[in-house]
C-alpha cells in the first residue's frame, strides 16, 4: 500500500506542472484524398489537394467537445477521408476520432474528435 502511494505521489509530482488540461489539448485534422477539397475549420475555409494535416487552433477553456471539421470534395471523381485527432500524447486518454469516408460526387464528410 505504501509503495503504491509513493509511486502515485512521484507520478503526480512530475505530471502536475506539465500535464495538459482538457482545454490545452491541441487537435489536428488528418485528410487523405486523391482530389481537390475544401475544409471548414472553426470559421476558416482551407483549400487543398491530396493528403494533409491541418492544425486546429485552440479555442480556449470554454470550448466544447467534440472538435469537428467539415471537408468537401471539389470533384465528382476520387475519394476523401478525414478524422480529427489529439495532437501529441495525452494522459487524459485517446481523443482520436474515427475515420469518415466518401467517394460520392462532390461528397463531403464531417469528422469529429471523441468527447
Report what the structure shows.
- There is one protein chain.
- With 115 residues, the chain is mainly beta.
- It has one domain.
- The protein contains 1 helix and 8 strands.
- Strands 4-1-6-7 form a 4-stranded antiparallel beta sheet, with no helix packed on it.
- Please tell me the overall pLDDT: 79
Q: Estimate nothing, just give the exact number of structural domains.
A: 1
Give the strand line-up of the largest sheet. Answer: 4-1-6-7
Q: How many β-strands, per DSSP?
A: 8
Q: What's the story with the biggest beta sheet?
A: 4 strands, antiparallel
What is the H-and-E element order? Answer: HEEEEEEEE
Number of helices: 1
Strand content: 35-45%
- Gross morphology: elongated
Structural class by SSE content: mainly beta
Summarize the structure.
The chain is built from one helix and eight strands; from the N terminus they run H-E-E-E-E-E-E-E-E.
Please specify the SSE layout and strand pairing:
Layout (H helix, E strand, L loop, with lengths): L1 H14 L11 E7 L2 E6 L2 E6 L2 E5 L11 E6 L6 E7 L13 E3 L5 E5 L3
List keywords for this structure.
mainly beta, four-stranded antiparallel sheet, 39% strand
Amino acid at each position: 500500500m505504501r509503495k503504491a502511494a509513493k509511486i502515485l505521489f512521484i507520478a503526480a509530482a512530475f505530471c502536475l506542472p506539465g500535464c495538459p488540461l482538457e482545454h490545452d489539448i491541441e487537435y489536428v485534422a488528418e485528410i487523405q484524398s486523391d482530389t481537390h477539397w475544401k475544409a471548414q475549420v472553426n470559421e476558416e475555409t482551407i483549400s487543398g489537394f491530396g493528403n494533409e494535416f491541418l492544425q486546429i487552433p485552440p479555442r480556449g477553456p470554454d470550448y466544447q467537445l467534440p472538435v469537428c471539421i467539415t471537408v468537401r470534395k471539389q470533384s465528382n471523381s476520387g475519394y476523401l477521408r478525414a478524422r480529427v485527432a489529439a495532437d501529441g500524447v495525452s494522459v487524459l486518454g485517446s481523443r482520436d476520432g474515427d475515420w469518415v469516408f466518401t467517394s460520392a460526387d462532390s461528397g463531403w464528410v464531417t469528422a469529429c474528435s471523441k468527447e
